[in-house]
Amino acid sequence: MKFKKALLAAFFLCSLPLLARNQMHNRHYKIAVCDWMMLKRQKVGSFELVKELKGDGVEMDMGGLGKRDSFDNKLRQPHFQKLFKDKSKEYKVAIASIAMSAFYGQSFVGRSNYQELVQDCLNTMKVMNVKIAFLPLGVGGDLIKHPEMRLELVRRLKLIGDMAVKQHCVIGIETSLDAQGEVSLLKEINSAGIKIYYNFQNALESGRNLYDELRILGKNRICQIHCTDTDGVLLADNKRLDLHEVKKTLDDMGWRGWLVIERSRDKNDIHNVKKNFGSNIIYLKDLFQK
After folding, report:
1. Is 5 contained in some domain?
2. Is residue 4 in a domain?
3. What is the CATH number of the domain that holds 36?
4. What digits encode the pLDDT tens for the residues 119-153?
5. DSSP per residue, 141-189
6. Whole-angstrom Cα distance, residue 134 to residue 224?
7. What is the largest CA-CA distance in the chain?
8. Running DSSP on this structure, what letter comes out for residue 240?
9. Are 183 and 195 within 8 A, CB to CB?
């Protein structure tokens, strides 16, 4: 019976016109933008701006942290929860993920209240109906510079990963390791709640082959992708990032999900939000969705 169903499904797919099959395939990719990079961190105007720029979604940040004990998070308040959900619906702009970007400049290992911080993020994800969180392992979490942190980092990531599993969510971590190193790290963590949030910039800056890295990680270890390079030129002008090859690689892997624009701003016009993010959105949508 299973074989018969599979045969019928294959026949149906093959009978579709080529254009229709391509349209089905390209629905695998959606394009989002980091709200904090658009200067819209936890601002309701991010939805209208992304709609204007033709994007599909927003990666919403948890808010700043600094020396505070908790994130500067508006979304603990029912008023803001309703407001953000209403605007998301009004502009048909989804929330792709919730980011803890403060950990770019904070030590995840050095924070004694890391569980409370992550729980705040998980609570926000639940109320906003979001399934993926972003956790960069920045200062203090660089396992190449600080290998002595590995045991404690693995312990903490295992713990918060299991917290995420209970809520049917995933926390995507960004590391400084190469792909094989990330595979080994995930095996050590051994939690279905921790996956890799892959960032093209890290591989490019380190001189690694990001297409090979994507294949090594495989579709099931990558929960989301920051689909940009460091600031300098727009994506369409980037000579060291072949996004046609990226798409071919992801297609071959069978990966699907959100491609999130973080950087790749024109260094000569870096503060022009609409130009930088609008141009990058259009380029990615033309390549990945048409």
Report:
1. no
2. no
3. 3.20.20.150
4. 999 999 999 999 999 999 987 789 999 999 999 99
5. --TTT-GGGHHHHHHHHHHHHHHHHHTT-EEEEE-SS-HHHHHHHHHHH
6. 9
7. 61
8. S
9. no
Q: Whole-angstrom Cα distance, residue 102 to residue 255?
A: 28
Q: Residues 133, 122: contact at Cβ < 8 Å?
A: yes
- CA-CA distance, 196 to 174, in Å (whole number)? 6
Answer for the pair 46, 273: CB distance below 8 angstroms, yes or no.
no
Both tokens of 227, joined, read 């689909």
Residue 24, pLDDT score: 42
* CA separation for the pair 103, 173 (Å, rounded): 11
In degrees, to the nearest 5, what angle opens at C-alpha 116 toward C-alphas 114 and 121? 95
Question: Tokens standing for 192?
Answer: 């279905």
Structure-block tokens of residue 36 = 């904090």
Q: Residue 211: its pLDDT value, please?
A: 98
How does pLDDT run across 254-285, given as a tens digit for each residue?
999 999 999 999 999 999 999 999 999 999 99
Q: Mapping DSSP to helix (H, G, I), strand (E, B) and coil, where does residue 275 land?
A: helix
Tokens of 220: 């099931």
> Each residue of 52-89: pLDDT tens digit?
999 999 999 999 998 899 999 999 999 999 999 999 99
In a domain, residue 19? The reply is: no
Number of structural domains in the chain: 1
Q: Is residue 202 part of a domain?
A: yes
